[in-house]
Design goal:
It is built from twelve helices and 20 strands. By secondary structure, the protein is of the alpha+beta class. The strands form three sheets. Strands 1, 2, 3, 4, 5, 6, 7, 10 and 16 form a nine-stranded mixed β-sheet that branches. Strands 9-11-12-13-14-8-15 form a seven-stranded mixed β-sheet.
């Protein structure tokens, strides 16, 4: 695709075949997204860009968009890209598009370039059949493109590695750590699915993506991950850790996944794993970071194990993923099996009737049930007659399990539910944690 913008600027994808776009894009990202990084950080962003342009398991040249200034020797002045991936809503697969690496040189800002790029990205995402778009980034900014903050992201708990006592000289750990290898992929997939059963939104990576994460990334990329297997005394894998290789802050080690399968437990492995992490980090970096920060979605047992040690704490407020659902009714119909399953055995078991949801813009939807089965979802309109209403996009905070509607009502009293809606919403949309890192 190619689109002429104002002031002689041109929007196009890398699939247009301009060699200069590929050559110059890494520098744009290093200059803008790595503006406050040292040289190692800038190099890491360039390496990540190179990975996305060639060798990534889901990104193609059709998914990367640039804006060039024809009057400045086709300088790349703004860009973003789309990372296709698969998530799941409980056990229902979702086709997802993740915009990433949004960047514009300062002198080109305020011209609507990001809006034009997001129109292109959303068009591409729709062509790929994506049911959801997701992004992380600047507070409030992406709301203007139809996104709403609805799922926990980033720092969830902090563990003080500096305060971890050394074991006694004769201590023999029951569990140790070793680097994961390609042959571990089936076990990694099974363990990830085991934790996913307790979460609302999770990632659903095929073996090819796991292979890329373990063996395909550049170790100097900004998104390089280290996978460590948790093994028992017999050498059997019982869990794994997913750690970000640190490039900037040497006082913090970030963990986006601590997963234990059904052959062990978090209580049983935790102390040995923390000691193993400290030993691994010291051997890898020559020093151990002071703290280990865990991402959102870790098992609740880890909250207790971290929060009750001196210097450890669980964050009460996290940052959030932005989510955008381009087609409300098809999305809700897609997750219908989960909604029907939740209704069964609830206070609205075998419900027959309608549930009318309004959005304060004279639009709404009606969900029709027959003996607990959803038979229709239709658009409706008008000012009155709704069982529950939500301003803006806050309905999705409830659908994605982040808030109960009464949580929102405590701030925005317009979110009022009738008695019928209260019973149905409690059954259909319970609060539930998600576990997401996002393919990058």
């Amino acid at each position: 695709m190619q689109k002429q913008l104002d002031d002689g600027l041109i929007l196009r994808s890398l699939s247009e075949g301009h060699a200069s776009d590929r050559e110059r894009l890494p520098q744009l990202y290093a200059d803008v997204n790595g503006e406050h990084d040292d040289e190692a950080g800038k190099v890491a962003i360039k390496r990540w860009t190179d990975e996305l342009m060639s060798g990534h398991p889901t990104v193609t040249a059709d998914d990367i968009f640039v804006v060039v200034d024809a009057a400045q020797d086709e300088r790349v002045v703004s860009a973003t890209l789309l990372i296709p991936q698969t998530w799941r809503y409980e056990d229902i697969p979702l086709a997802v598009g993740r915009p990433e690496l949004v960047a514009t040189y300062a002198e080109y800002r305020g011209r609507g370039l990001v809006r034009a790029l997001f129109e292109a990205v959303h068009e591409r995402s729709a062509a790929l059949g994506h049911q959801l778009q997701v992004i992380t980034g600047i507070p409030h900014f992406y709301r203007k493109f139809g996104y709403t903050m609805a799922v926990d992201l980033a720092d969830h708990a902090t563990y003080p590695l500096y305060n971890l006592a050394e074991p006694k000289p004769d201590h023999k750990p029951a569990f140790t750590l070793r680097p994961a290898v390609v042959d571990d992929i089936p076990d990694l997939m099974n363990m990830a699915s085991y934790l996913a059963r307790e979460r609302l939104l999770t990632e659903m990576h095929p073996a090819a993506v796991w292979h890329y994460e373990i063996a395909g990334r550049d170790p100097n990329s900004a998104q390089y991950l280290v996978y460590l297997m948790i093994v028992n005394a017999d050498g059997e894998g019982v869990g794994y850790l997913e750690l970000f290789k640190y490039l900037w802050d040497k006082n913090v080690l970030r963990c986006s996944g601590y997963v234990v399968g059904e052959e062990s437990s978090y209580l049983e492995t935790f102390e040995d794993v923390m000691r193993g992490v400290k030993q691994w980090a010291t051997a890898t970096y020559g020093e151990c970071p002071a703290v280990m920060v865990f991402g959102a979605g870790i098992h609740e047992a880890l909250d207790h194990l971290i929060d009750r040690i001196t210097g450890g704490f669980v964050h009460r407020q996290e940052y959030l993923w932005y989510l955008r659902v381009p087609e409300m009714i098809p999305f809700l119909w897609h997750i219908r099996p989960v909604l029907e399953r939740r209704l069964a055995g609830s206070g609205a078991n075998r419900y027959s009737g309608e549930l009318k949801i309004g959005f304060y813009d004279l639009t709404g939807i009606s969900l029709t049930f027959e003996r607990g089965q959803m038979t229709e979802i239709n658009p409706i309109s008008g000012k009155d007659g709704y069982d529950i209403s939500f301003p803006w996009d806050l309905f999705w905070n409830v659908v994605f399990g982040h808030h109960h509607y009464d949580d929102i009502r405590s701030i925005l009293p317009e979110v009022w539910a009738s008695a019928k809606a209260a019973v149905l919403f409690d059954a259909l949309f319970p609060q539930k944690k998600s576990w997401l890192k996002g393919l990058s």
